[in-house]
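User: Reviewer 2 asked us to show a designed sequence for the structure in our supplementary figure. I'm pasting the structure tokens here. Could you produce the per-position amino acids so we can include them in the response letter?
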């Protein structure tokens, strides 16, 4: 890319195409540093962002043909959070009226997200939304009940699609479908793409989907130059629609094909560790070499989970304080990052003088402590909503907001001063002993919060919800003496919540044209309380503090696509490293291009999927690790159960093999 720019190629003629926006960060950073170029700016796109831009550009030429009820009105593109909101509005009455999903025991928000996932897979793979149930039933239906569940999911998907077409709403799946089936067939759109993007750089092609590959194939026919990068033995984003086999077909468009085999990251022992574990799982062929992978491993078994956490904290502290390893070159990974594990690690590392940060993008907004606190304060500040917080939520919010206030004293304050949806001033505490127990210093901080809420209500208390979040964060919570002061994670979450609420308000301003208007602030709080999955927020992916250790789920780290010196793999006995999440309404492989229609998904298929998933994951992790891997293992899990997952089995088999080789004849 830089060579093209230095050679005088107009920047606006260069397209950087990636599966996920975070994977383009190296290119974006290079563009920031390389300021001397001409001709606009290079464009970075995913299939989602490109589809949105092109549909918006050619909307009035294709809206009626695509089936929208109001082709002369502008389109409204939905974020993930808004998709979940509108899906609830569209299908909740249907679900309740017909008693859909009555045998499925998972949260409604998760059910609806699986319907969204089915629709996205249909768009990316290239089959109609109306075929979802037939494909799932042919492969997975083990009885009448399961068939009914797939039929219910199909009905809901079609109902949501009709709802969107009737209101000019475009979720990700509909945006991609309209781009794929209507925009790309327009001669003006074809001419625009051919003239605009003359030079193409595609990175991580193996992590992209068939819709992206088909678009790239059409663009490659007219490009002046193109570079396509494909990582072998990858495709760990299969659960998001990645199709490495389909991506490999793009080779035929490349006149020159180069294969790079020498790693720019791994030391030999780390490379041997990844390849030998993957070979044990049947993903790659075993190689005979003299490199001992145990040189890259550090492990020690513990009986109880808290003991494992302490051992991990000790090892990280030693690497930083004795080994001079920068904290930013250490990541702590687990298949799932529970609140218990996250809190325990952060507390243990904080006691050892090590700063930490965490990133959990797939969590619901309400599950983040900072977001939950702001939502509780919003309820207090808007009594007209009639959404009084529970006492526990008040105590939790006070503990989070007031620096130095523990949960016990927060509960005491709540019991003494929370009345009929409002907080009374600290002076209303009748007992001097209780005032002393809470302390007047904390009582003063509490009063500042109460006074702020009272002033807000006296001003009218009708500001947009995103403005309320921004004001209370900037005017109070981020100040010294309050819980968000100097807390980078809390600051990021608060800004994500502000962006989320602002987008919600902007997107629903149009709703009065088609439906009755509502109190947007109240609706937003209710939506988040239902457990919507958060949007992709770029700031959360780009935050890289060299002075802090990253704690994250394994796949989250991989999607940031950066190498580090040391990785800690925790709970290696957990089946979460290999087994996919229980999703009764969808299936990532059955709805993929590679699945043979009419075939049955068997237990053998499930085991092969698990082994392949783990093998790809381990290769991806070790290829982003320079010096070594630390294994955190406890015989008993957080819940007190024994753990015997596939990753533990693979590691034990590897160690036993080398122990036999070391044994004397």
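Assistant: Here is a per-position design you can include in the supplement:
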């Amino acid at each position: 890319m830089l060579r093209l720019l230095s050679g005088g190629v107009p920047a606006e003629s260069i397209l950087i195409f990636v599966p996920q926006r975070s994977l383009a960060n190296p290119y974006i950073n290079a563009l920031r540093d390389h300021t001397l170029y001409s001709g606009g700016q290079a464009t970075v796109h995913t299939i989602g962002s490109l589809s949105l831009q092109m549909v918006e550009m050619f909307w009035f030429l294709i809206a009626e043909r695509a089936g929208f009820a109001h082709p002369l009105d502008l389109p409204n593109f939905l974020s993930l959070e808004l998709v979940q909101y509108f899906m609830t509005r569209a299908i909740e009455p249907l679900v309740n009226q017909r008693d859909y999903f009555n045998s499925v025991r998972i949260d409604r928000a998760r059910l609806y997200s699986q319907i969204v996932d089915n629709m996205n897979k249909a768009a990316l793979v290239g089959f109609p939304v109306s075929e979802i149930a037939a494909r799932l039933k042919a492969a997975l239906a083990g009885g009448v009940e399961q068939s009914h569940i797939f039929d219910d999911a199909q009905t809901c998907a079609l109902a949501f699609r009709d709802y969107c077409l009737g209101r000019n709403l475009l979720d990700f799946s509909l945006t991609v479908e309209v781009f794929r089936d209507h925009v790309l067939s327009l001669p003006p759109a074809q001419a625009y793409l051919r003239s605009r993007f003359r030079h193409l750089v595609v990175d991580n092609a193996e992590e992209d989907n068939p819709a992206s590959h088909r678009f790239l194939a059409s663009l490659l026919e007219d490009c002046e130059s193109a570079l396509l990068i494909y990582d072998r033995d990858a495709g760990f984003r299969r659960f998001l629609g990645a199709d490495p086999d389909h991506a490999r077909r793009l080779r035929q468009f490349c006149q020159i094909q180069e294969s790079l085999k020498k790693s720019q990251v791994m030391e030999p022992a780390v490379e041997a560790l990844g390849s030998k574990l993957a070979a044990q799982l049947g993903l790659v062929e075993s190689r005979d070499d003299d490199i001992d992978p145990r040189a890259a491993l550090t492990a020690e078994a513990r009986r109880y989970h808290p003991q494992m956490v302490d051992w991990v904290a000790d090892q990280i502290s030693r690497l930083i304080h004795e080994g001079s390893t920068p904290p930013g070159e250490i990541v702590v990974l687990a298949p799932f990052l529970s609140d218990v594990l996250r809190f325990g690690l952060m507390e243990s590392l904080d006691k050892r003088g090590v700063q930490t940060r965490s990133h959990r993008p797939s969590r619901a907004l309400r599950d983040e402590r900072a977001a939950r606190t702001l939502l509780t304060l919003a309820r207090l500040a808007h009594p007209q909503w009639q959404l009084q917080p529970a006492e526990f939520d008040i105590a939790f919010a006070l503990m989070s907001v007031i620096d130095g206030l523990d949960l016990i004293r927060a509960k005491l304050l709540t019991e003494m001063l929370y009345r009929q949806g409002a907080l009374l001033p600290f002076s209303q505490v009748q007992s001097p002993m209780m005032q002393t127990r809470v302390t007047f210093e904390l009582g003063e901080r509490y009063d500042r919060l109460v006074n702020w809420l009272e002033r807000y209500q006296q001003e009218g208390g009708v500001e947009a919800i995103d403005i309320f979040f921004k004001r209370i964060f900037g005017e109070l919570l981020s100040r010294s003496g309050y819980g968000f002061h100097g807390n980078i994670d809390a600051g990021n979450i608060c800004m994500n919540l502000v962006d989320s609420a602002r987008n919600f308000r902007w997107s629903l301003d149009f709703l009065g044209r088609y439906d009755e208007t509502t109190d947007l602030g109240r609706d937003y709080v209710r939506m988040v309380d239902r457990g919507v999955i958060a949007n992709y927020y770029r700031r959360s992916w780009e935050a890289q503090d060299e002075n802090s250790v990253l704690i994250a789920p394994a796949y989250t780290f991989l999607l940031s696509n950066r190498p580090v010196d040391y990785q800690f793999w925790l709970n290696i006995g957990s089946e979460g490293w290999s087994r996919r999440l229980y999703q009764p309404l969808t299936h990532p492989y059955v709805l993929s291009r590679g699945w043979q229609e009419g075939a049955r998904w068997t237990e053998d298929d499930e085991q092969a999927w698990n082994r392949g998933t783990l093998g790809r994951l381990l290769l991806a992790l070790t290829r982003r690790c320079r010096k070594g891997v630390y294994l955190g293992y406890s015989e008993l899990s957080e819940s007190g159960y024994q753990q015997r997952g596939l990753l533990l089995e693979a590691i034990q088999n590897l160690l036993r093999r080398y122990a036999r080789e070391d044994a004397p004849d």
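For the response letter, you might also mention the following. DSSP finds 27 helices and 14 strands in the chain. The chain has four domains: 2-45+197-253, 77-174, 268-362+541-662, 365-530.
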